[in-house]
Amino acid sequence: MENLSDEQIEEYKDAFSLFDRDDNGIITTRELGAIMRSLGFNPTEEELHAMINSVDYDGNGVIDFPEFVKLMEDQKKPDEREADMMLAFRIFDADNKGYIESAELRYILLNMDKRIPQEEIKELMEIADLERDRKIRYQEFLDLVECEQQKFIRWRKVKHT
């Protein structure tokens, strides 16, 4: 949430309060279902659980405000997400070569605030460099980010069970 403006957070709080009908700080499947039906959708109980589980990082079966913000941010228009990813890639590809040297990306990953273990960096490099030419092109970069997001989601679910 640190990337969001105060205005965006307020908008999300307003939206969250519409879902959180009993004002207890969480959204249940029942509350989510009621809102979805009022919008003309008719989700099954299974679909509602799947929606909640997609962002329920603490595994308690409900959505709290930070999880709601994550859900909303994940629903950004693909164009916005694409623009964010392109900007990140361009930052790493400072020379505008159309790729990131794998050594350069390895260096960046090793020197991040949140330390990534060497073994995981090696695995990421193998996943990212599909052509085995030590150059990470844009699509490979996107695949790498997607892979890391999925690993993080699995890790959070394991950690909280």
UniProtKB/TrEMBL annotation:
It comes from the Eukaryota. Coiled coil: none annotated. GO terms for molecular function: calcium ion binding. SMART domains: EFh. GO terms for cellular component: myosin II complex. Keywords: Calcium, Repeat. Residues 7-42, 43-78, 80-115, 116-151 form the EF-hand domain. This is Calmodulin-4.
